[in-house]
Design brief:
- With 241 residues, the chain is mainly α.
- It has a single domain (3-38, 53-240), classed as Transmembrane di-heme cytochromes, Chain C (Fumarate Reductase Cytochrome B subunit), CATH 1.20.950.20.
- It contains 9 helices and 2 strands.
- The protein has helices spanning 14-38, 54-82, 97-111, 130-154, 161-164, 169-173, 176-208, 215-218, 225-240, and strands at 6-10, 220-224.
- α1 packs across α7 (176-208) and α4 (130-154) packs antiparallel against α7.
- The chain starts with 5 loop residues before the first strand and ends with a helix.
């Protein structure tokens, strides 16, 4: 495909980009502080115990980041109903045969590391591809597990009504130890997802050259004009039906 055939298209709206980077910051802080809380280092000091409150501060940072993560997730759910078609909830679930065709294409290129000799423009997603959509649904479910277990553990030490709404989680799951274990392993799920996500973003940026990385800063991608024509034709056909 020639560079002159590409058109600059606004894909990621400002609220989506805000959500993404707030999520990155919150998850980074939560994972770092959470791993320290789960296995705190033995810090020796000759200072008075009353002057050493670093672990309490660490827990406060973890809890504060959890609130940011939670309300940020609530906002993203809201935006999946009011945002553009690329951020809409329909972009994350399989609704037609085209979705499965793109799914097979992404498996072939991303997982099996094969190149298609005859590149089909209909197999290139403008927004999220099929694998990304499904992975974000899985990430949302994992985030839901973290919210339930995290606030469930926090409920016993908080007097605010929001954490108290999750006080049922610990007895429901069979005790504090099980809830902490699930919360800990879910954290590693986020870490694994982040590693794969960063790799695939840079891989697609190199493979397709459409501004995959920069799009989450400026909102724009470079999309082949023929691909946009295909989208308009399919939209027109669906409207005529």
């Amino acid at each position: 495909m020639e560079t002159k055939n590409f058109q600059r298209v606004y894909i990621w709206e400002l609220p989506v980009r805000y959500f993404h980077w707030i999520n990155v910051l919150a998850i980074t802080i939560l994972a770092t502080t959470g791993l320290i809380i789960s296995n705190p280092p033995a810090i020796l000091s000759n200072a008075e115990a009353s002057e050493l409150y670093w672990f309490g501060t660490l827990r406060f940072i973890h809890f504060a980041s959890a609130y940011v993560f939670f309300f940020n997730m609530i906002f993203r759910i809201y935006w999946s109903f009011v945002g553009n078609k690329y951020s809409n909830w329909r972009a994350f679930v399989p609704l037609n045969r085209k979705w499965f065709r793109i799914f097979l294409h992404v498996i072939k290129v991303d997982i099996l590391l094969q190149n298609e000799k005859h590149q089909n423009l209909t197999n290139i997603s403008v927004g999220h591809n099929s694998i990304a959509g499904i992975s974000y649904v899985a990430l949302f479910l994992l985030a839901l597990v973290q919210v339930l277990t995290g606030f469930g553990l926090y409920a016993s030490t908080s007097g605010w009504w929001l954490p108290q709404m999750f006080a049922w989680v610990v007895p429901f799951m069979g005790g504090d130890f099980i809830v902490r274990t699930v919360h800990h392993f879910a954290t590693w799920g986020f870490i694994l997802f982040t590693l794969i996500h960063v790799y695939l973003v840079f891989y697609h940026d190199w493979l397709e050259g459409r501004g995959e990385v920069s799009s989450m800063f400026g909102g724009y991608k470079f999309v082949n004009k023929d691909r946009l024509k295909d989208n308009k034709k399919s939209k027109l056909a669906s409207e005529q039906k």
